[in-house]
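Deliverable D4.2, example record:
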Amino acid sequence: MIISGLYGKTEYEEPLQKNKTYIFTPNHFSYFDIVSVNTQMPYFFSFMAKKELSDIPLFRIFFRTIDMPVDRSSKEGAKRAYYLAHKKLKSGISLLNFPEGGIGNEVPLMRKFKMGPFKMAIEHGLEIVPITLPDNWKRLPCGEFIPQGTPGRMRMFVHRPIPTDGLKSGDEVELASKVYRIIEDKFNEMNSL
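Output generated by the structure prediction step:
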């Protein structure tokens, strides 16, 4: 990243516990988001993302080792990915999932969140950790015919974990909405500086 002129900086609202299992939920506006979370967070986690990313040479190695590609064109493929995710969470491995389900067409506006990570957090009684990535969409814009990357800062703000104690099935919609607002508010704040 440094050779490319990309400068990552991570800020934590409060320290995370190294031995705790979390579900991380960052916003997703650029393919650089994958690079950021893998290089700027000193935590071990498995990545849950669309299967198509395993076709990109840079990301292929991750999906052959610790990560879970989701084949959204197949019900069986999606079920298998969620089964693996539950298995990893039960064994104490944290999970990172982009709840937008992909990069939208109206960046930097977030897409509606999918409920998967929030349902899993409630089912396993795990804390959700929202993550705001305010700069990556400027470094590598998506949706261009030939994307033009630019050097610069790649900040990451890791929010305070949100407990799911006492939540039940059906509460995932409210939880997702809360996480959405937290990320959106911080994104707007960091882009107004």
